Amino acid sequence: MIRLRDYTPARLELGLTGNSLPTRALLEFQLAHAKARDAVHLPLAVKSLVLELKERNIPSITLASAAPNRNEYLKRPDLGRRLGEESRERLACLRSEYDAAFVIADGLSSLAVHRHAVPLLELLLRNLDWRIAPVAIVEQGRVAIGDEIGELLGARIVVVFIGERPGLSSPDSLGAYLTWQPRTGRTDAERNCVSNIRAEGLGYAAAAHKLSFLMNESRRLKLSGVRLKENAPLVGGSIVDAKLVGDH
């Protein structure tokens, strides 16, 4: 007998106890909801990320958005899209002619960043013989903050690793957003995204393959976003999909 629950983590065929859900299903739902809430509010472990990158000989710089705390960040998405004044000044000193800049931002799930950002970045860098800027680790950051960071660094491409909005079955999903010639004011239509990077979603090898392809194509064609078409070769027997999604 084929059961849909064998092919998806979605909540299907939960059953009934009278007019309500069985106790087990209800408790599992409440636990998933709690994990999603915790992922949103979990502080970014900046020192730990710096140490992980240092162990891999990847230089980094720590920055902060204009949002003074987590509550303001959640209430004011606009503050998470731009750097604080002190961070802007620190970053301007590093300006050069970089091929690419990578940003690690907490977004709406620091849990996703802690689990996936550094391993994915390490794998991706193995196949890139590019001049890479120091990795920017940003507290209280959203996707668009990468545009300002890339612009200040003088990078031709910026890639933002960020925690995606948690779902009830995916509190640790990482997204990677790519923008050609980043500058303040870029729109979502001008970037590409590889999403759902996690153990139960898109694996590191497939995600790194896709990002490497997109970065090389972006540099070759000098564009990104809706005009950068998805035609990467097969990897692991399946097509790796990249898509455009909204801001986090």
Short description:
The chain is of the alpha/beta class.
Helix-strand makeup class: alpha/beta
The CATH H-level superfamily is Ethanolamine ammonia-lyase light chain (EutC)
- Give me the side-by-side strand order of the main sheet: 1-3-2-4-5-6
Radius of gyration: 19 Å
CATH class: Alpha Beta
What's the overall geometry? globular
Number of domains in the coordinates?
Answer: 1
Distance from first to last alpha carbon: 40 Å
**CATH topology-level name:** Rossmann fold
What is the number of helical segments per DSSP (H or I, 4+ residues)?
7
Main pleated-sheet profile: 6 strands, mixed
Structure report:
Residues 237-246 have low confidence and may be disordered. Helix 5 (110-125) packs across helix 7. This protein has helices spanning 23-41, 46-55, 70-75, 85-92, 110-125, 145-153, 204-221, and strands spanning 60-64, 98-105, 135-139, 155-163, 174-180, 191-197. The longest helix has 19 residues, at 23-41. The radius of gyration is 19 Å and the shape is globular. It is built from 7 helices and 6 strands. The protein is 35% helix and 17% strand. Strand 2 (98-105), helix 5 (110-125) and strand 3 form a beta-alpha-beta unit. The chain has a 6-stranded mixed sheet, sandwiched between helices. The chain is an alpha/beta fold. It has one domain (39-227): Rossmann fold (3-Layer(aba) Sandwich), CATH 3.40.50.
